Amino acid sequence: MKSSIALIGFMGTGKTAVGKALAERLGKEFIELDALIEKKAGKPIPEIFAQDGEIAFRELEIAAIREVAGRKNVVVACGGGIVLNRINIDRLKQECVIVYLTATPGVIWKRVSRGAGGRPLLDVDNPRLRIQEMLKFRRPLYEHAADITVDTSKLTVDSVVGEILSKLSEIKDTSP
Q1: Nearest 5 degrees, angle CA 153-CA 157-CA 161?
Q2: CA distance 72 to 118
Q3: CB atoms within 10 A of CB 151
Q4: If DSSP states are collapsed to H, E and C, what string results for 64-78?
Q5: How much is the pTM?
Q6: 18-43 pLDDT, tens per residue?
């Protein structure tokens, strides 16, 4: 039985907030992958994108996943683009149940537009359109990777945690 959980999904779907609450509820260590990448790089993600580019960031992301993927009893909040490199999901699946958090484009926009900066991929003329385009491309990748899917659009963090725990128990009940 897998002892860790990886939360995937687009930015603004609640991976960090849900991950912290879920880890606390389960008594597991919480790992925020973007924070780990920033620590290793010695600079914030927007600076990595601006100075080194997205490809360099994705390489750092692969290295961070390599470091955490085999850990037991952790909850990992992954960055939104984690599914862009298949090796990341393959590594995570070894020890993690993959939980895909979704939300509608409108909810995502509302959530991410509250924060100032920090979203280099949305630093474009029409960020709402960019969200829709990125979701269209990434949705099949998220869906293919997921063991569990939860739509966070109309749920509180505690409700999402409850839904995840309920679905995890269903998986345990059906495993050999």
Answers
A1: 105
A2: 30
A3: 16
A4: HHHHHCCCCCEEEEC
A5: 0.91
A6: 999 999 999 999 999 999 999 999 99
